[in-house]
Specification:
Layout: E1 14-23, E2 31-33, E3 37-42, E4 46-52, H1 70-77, E5 80-89, E6 92-100, E7 108-116, E8 119-124, E9 130-137, E10 143-147, E11 153-158, E12 161-166, H2 186-193, E13 196-203, E14 206-212
Antiparallel strand pairs: 1-2, 1-3, 1-9, 3-4, 4-5, 5-6, 6-7, 7-8, 8-9, 10-11, 11-12, 12-13, 13-14
Length: 223
């Protein structure tokens, strides 16, 4: 897919895993999170990001959103997962989120600093937080991108790693994206949680879902 956005520096391309989120950006931290599972796939233009806390509810016997109870729906709808175009100017990185599972009105902008060849530090512009990223793979030579007719990213592949995105069904009441969860019906929560992100790895049997915003999909093969 062609894009008018400039390609980001090659050094940033690849698969990254977060090892630390802490507030504020300088020690001593008031809080620190090393447990949430976070993967960031970065291509020449497109990014896809998936974040899964470890304290989620169980989903025994669940096979789709229709079977989820309210507590499960609220957790799914509160997850962080997004995709879009990345823009890097000097040390300032902006992630333009074109698809966002739990959107915010705040722009996603960070100050980037190389700790070494395999580790990045990201800081909030005003020092509210710091994140550390460790490179999982820098092999972005086999980058494959698929977008749908609306221009939404559906597949971002970097060699043996990929993120598959299934957009929400069309809905005129987009206010449900920003409304408090307590004000939403179960059906509105299901719609909000229906934007799914699957992180896949390729093995001898094909593309297997390793992590997902819909936990019952983990272990399945794409296609």
């Amino acid at each position: 897919m062609s894009t008018d956005w400039p390609a980001i520096p090659q050094a940033f391309c690849g698969v990254w895993q977060r090892t630390l989120y802490a507030e504020p950006a300088h020690e001593p931290y008031r809080q620190a999170d090393r447990a949430t599972l976070v993967y960031w796939l970065q291509g020449k233009h497109w990014h896809a990001d998936l974040r899964l806390p470890t304290n989620g509810p169980d989903f025994p016997g669940i096979t789709d959103l229709e079977e989820c109870e309210r507590r499960q729906l609220e957790w799914l709808a509160s997850l962080t997962a997004f995709a879009g175009i990345t823009q890097i100017e000097g040390s300032v990185c902006t992630w333009h989120r074109f698809q966002d599972l739990c959107p915010s009105l705040e722009r996603d902008v960070g100050l980037m600093r190389w700790m070494n060849d395999a580790h990045l530090e990201e800081r909030h512009l005003h020092g509210h937080y710091v994140e550390h990223w460790q490179r999982v793979s820098n092999d972005a030579s086999d980058e494959v991108i698929h977008c749908d007719e609306q221009g939404r990213l559906r597949w971002l592949q970097l060699n043996d790693h990929a993120m598959a995105i299934n957009p929400r069904p069309s809905k005129t009441n987009a206010e449900a994206l920003f409304a408090p969860q307590s004000s939403l019906t179960d059906d509105a929560l299901r719609w909000r949680a229906s934007l799914s992100f699957d992180y896949l790895q390729r093995n001898q049997s094909g593309w297997q879902i390793v992590h997902s915003t819909q936990p019952w999909r983990v272990g399945k093969y794409a296609g």
